């Protein structure tokens, strides 16, 4: 027996002869130590925490129960059909669906939005003969819709918003053409937490025979359950019960507090949903039919979402939504008492945008000060009439009055320190030079020089204080910023040689 044969035989006899399991887990723990915390309510973007620790164990056990199941073929794994039907059914009942409402479980809000746009494109092509489709988007619409337009070949028609950051139906009407495949409204918009006037927008779209999608990814589960609470104001109408709304997306891994990878896309009926499906039998392999962008689909997120939704229940979500509502009001009122800050718009949901009311207080510097003290508030650069601000997502884990009071105290201190430090300086000469660059012809070397001028070093490590970097990126023309952002990320992922070592002794 040669050495290769002997090695293979030993490997098959002992399939777990690699790195020790405890060393691997220790390595993961060490890596996670540098991450933002996902529990406790101090990370006010990206993560959603119910503050109910038992849900984590339930979700993990549910995922483990279906770890090997592949949602690609529902005829081979009928459990995924039952679970998906029950999850979609729960979402439809909450969000204005009828007996004919159809839906699809997806990997997240971006995939739900992509599928909504793809479905609208195909619907416009097949029913109206539209070959050069357009999508009408408020400037506050999520970036996922711009991604969808780029991927699926739609032209974006941007529509401004009013002083409260809500789109005006008259502007939507003026943007419609025979090529419009889809109109989008937000419930709420991510940047400011306000709900667009969905009934008027949907009626405008329907009057022109155009589909209307409501992006309720971040707010649908929260707002839908908040309507069930007696002692709070009724949220604005936004769901499938509104005439003219033809589809709606809602994420479960946000205010459903399920593990990541769980969203639902609802359609007014199965016929509309069918336009977004892919089927292929013209090859030698098995017949393929996909309702999502994925082929192979892990059943874990679906099972975990199902388990968490069933465990918390309607009354549980209504209580969590009520707690968050009270916390948002406490936060908004408290921000109004901090000299130098103001809330943008009038939030309808659990998202709050906080801007400066004092030119000496830069929001990006405030964000740095908060992060250095264990809080993450998401910086949002100025755009289309919205000034630079800080985004706060309020979840149930942060909804304790004492925790909000702690946050407000930290925020007041950060504002005072930011006032002393002053805004970051931006070299006017650098900005003037950058304005002359062509983003499409920018070489990696030129991009590297621009990033180094902005404070991003060649090694990929980002500075502890991001305010100077964000100030420069905000001052540059948007096309140039969009060209530089991938360069920033690419520095975090160097060539394969740099990643070859696991750092774990083996």
Automatic annotation (TrEMBL):
Family annotation (Gene3D superfamilies):
Aspartate Aminotransferase, domain 1, Type I PLP-dependent aspartate aminotransferase-like (Major domain)
- Cite the GO molecular-function annotations of the record: transaminase activity
Q: Which cofactor does it need?
A: pyridoxal 5'-phosphate
Could you list this entry's UniProt keywords, alphabetically sorted. Aminotransferase, Lyase, Pyridoxal phosphate, Transferase
Entries under SUPFAM superfamilies matching the protein: PLP-dependent transferases
Domain of life according to the entry: Bacteria
Q: Which family does it belong to?
A: Belongs to the group II decarboxylase family. Sphingosine-1-phosphate lyase subfamily.
What PANTHER family does the annotation carry? PTHR42735, SPHINGOSINE-1-PHOSPHATE LYASE 1 (PTHR42735:SF6)
Q: What is this protein called?
A: Aminotransferase class V-fold PLP-dependent enzyme
